[in-house]
Write a structure and sequence with these properties.
The chain is α/β, with parallel strands linked by helices. It folds into two domains: 175 residues, Alpha-Beta Complex (Aspartate Aminotransferase, domain 1); 252 residues, Aspartate Aminotransferase, domain 2 (3-Layer(aba) Sandwich). The protein is 40% helix and 13% strand. The protein is built from 16 helices and 16 strands. The strands form six sheets. A five-stranded mixed β-sheet has the order 2-8-7-6-5, with helices on both faces. A three-stranded antiparallel β-sheet has the order 9-14-11. Strands 1-10 form a two-stranded parallel ribbon. Strand 12 and strand 13 form a beta hairpin. The radius of gyration is 21 Å and the shape is globular. The structure holds ligand P61. The site of ligand P61 has 19 residues, from helix 4 and helix 5. InterPro entries: ArAA_b-elim_lyase/Thr_aldolase (IPR001597), Beta-eliminating_lyase (IPR011166), PyrdxlP-dep_Trfase (IPR015424), PyrdxlP-dep_Trfase_major (IPR015421), PyrdxlP-dep_Trfase_small (IPR015422), Tryptophanase_CS (IPR018176). Belongs to the beta-eliminating lyase family. GO terms for molecular function: carbon-carbon lyase activity. Its cofactor is pyridoxal 5'-phosphate.
């Protein structure tokens, strides 16, 4: 294992609170066994998400002081626009305050009832936004991408036959867009190859269907292409990104991931008519087109973050830190999704806790135990987050995978923190038979995992 030493040093520190087991037991009970309801300052290591949790660089913080808070035409907007155009290559750049607004604006303008949207795997906000518009979100990832053990180097790839079959089945007029999520978050943070991107693009062109990226973790995807795909070893990350986006018509982006900022996002696209309609709606719900719900200083931080994320030394550390955590777990037999993805290690809760059925949320059982035992916050990506309901019987239809995600914030935790996390999980693994499942006491209609209240099964 190559030890991934940090390519930065620490200038500012944020003390972490250490709580007792008794305190944590009380906290999780009061939270209805829902990890989203725990006050963050009671958490020792927070691996809930890599979204909006990055540490900004000194250069980004300096950029905040250059924020131009003019209502219209802020100079930071122009810097942001120029940076996005340079990397992503799309003509129109529309700022939003985070990724899901970009999704909502896009879908509000192009989806109608009965439409179908293929993707490798839709992330939950994307799926929810598609379904909110009474359209159907279809996952077309390759079969290997659903097998936690399969070592395919690009498990985020779209299955071209599944994509073609979906277009044949519903007719191209009912498929207003094809999406591709890089890296594929819901499938384990797995990359998509350039070859596959070209193939998806060709299918889209053949049928005259616009092709968009969900680009949240584009730089991590580019690093994997450089590492694993023939012909890309000597290219820069910027060159790889530029090629990748050249095959598409636009993208949605949550800058809270590879933008290395705490808030922000955008929509970018070549089509002027779509851009105009979306901009008009942006003005209705987010703000003027040169700030889209963000402050000028936020736009500056994104512009600088998007340049920093292309640094190969940073990406090498980033990808290897995640891999380092995964390898420590794998060595001790903890079942994880392999190969390890870009932004997170995904524990396979179905194999970790085979005695807890999906209806009793094995992933959530592990999430709760990890908090109670070690003060670590992770997130369930399984039946609690992703299950569907059978419209006839009302019975839960579990997703194929029951995962627990350990998402690693960018530039925030040291490798020693990763070792602490690994040791806690390995300890739980050795005593896994003791863990019990949960039932739901309250759930909302959409995105229930955020607010659900649960009860342990005695
Ligand atoms: C995450 F628990 N992801 O992974 P926004 N596309 C993709 C994402 O990963 C994504 C968005 C769009 C989050 C945050 C999150 O139930 C949850 O800027 C591939 O968050 O609006 C976000 O971008 C949306 C965590 C979202 C959750 C929803 O942690």
């Amino acid at each position: 294992m190559q030890f991934p030493a940090e390519p930065f040093r620490i200038k500012v520190v944020e003390p972490l609170k250490i709580t007792s087991r008794e305190e944590r037991e009380k906290l999780i009970k009061e939270a209805g066994y829902n990890i989203f309801m725990i006050p963050a300052d009671s958490i020792y290591i927070d691996l809930l998400t890599d979204s909006g949790t990055s540490a900004m660089s000194d250069n980004q913080w300096a950029g905040l002081m250059l924020g131009d808070e003019s209502y219209a035409g802020s100079k930071n907007y122009y810097h942001f626009e120029e940076t996005v155009r340079h990397i992503f290559g799309f003509k129109n750049v529309i700022p939003t305050h985070q990724g899901r607004v970009a999704e909502n604006l896009l879908f509000s303008n192009i989806l109608k009832e009965g439409d179908v949207v293929p993707n490798n795997i839709h992330f939950d906000t994307t799926r929810a936004n598609v379904e909110y518009h009474k359209a159907q979100a279809i996952d077309c990832v390759i079969d290997e991408g659903m097998d936690p053990q399969n070592l395919h180097p690009f498990k985020g790839n779209m299955d071209i036959d599944k994509l073609e079959a979906a277009i044949q089945k519903y007719g191209k007029d009912r498929v207003p867009i094809i999406l591709l999520t890089v890296t594929n978050n819901s499938g384990g943070g797995q990359p998509v190859s350039m070859q596959n991107i070209r193939e998806v693009s060709a299918v889209a062109k053949k049928h005259g269907i616009p092709f968009f990226f969900d680009a949240c973790r584009f730089a991590e995807n580019c690093y994997f292409i450089k590492e694993r795909e023939d012909g890309y070893q000597d290219k820069t990350i910027l060159e790889i990104a530029q090629e990748m986006f050249s095959y598409a018509d636009g993208c949605t982006m949550s800058a809270k991931k590879d933008g290395l900022v705490n808030i922000g996002g955008f929509l970018a696209m070549n089509d002027d008519q779509w851009a105009q309609r979306i901009t008009n709606m942006l003005i209705l719900i987010e703000g003027f087109k040169t700030y889209g719900g963000l402050a000028g200083r936020d736009l500056e931080a994104i512009a600088r973050g998007l340049k920093e994320v292309l640094d190969e030394n940073y990406l090498r550390f980033r990808i290897n830190q995640t891999r380092f955590l995964g390898e420590m777990l794998d060595k001790e037999g903890v079942p994880i999704v392999k190969p390890v993805g870009g932004h997170a290690v995904y524990v396979d809760a179905r194999r970790f806790l085979p005695h807890i059925p999906p209806e009793q949320f094995p992933g959530q059982a592990l999430v709760v135990e990890l908090f109670v035992r070690a003060g670590i916050r992770s997130v369930e990506i399984g039946s609690l987050m992703m299950a569907k309901k059978d419209p006839q019987t009302g019975k839960m239809i579990p997703p194929k995978l029951e995962l627990v995600r350990l998402a690693i914030p960018r530039r925030v935790y040291t490798n020693m923190h990763m070792q602490y996390v690994a040791e806690a999980i390995i300890e739980i693994y050795r005593e896994r038979e003791k863990l019990k499942g949960f039932t739901i006491e309250y759930e909302a209609d959409f995105l229930r995992h955020f607010t659900a209240r649960l009860k342990p099964i005695a």
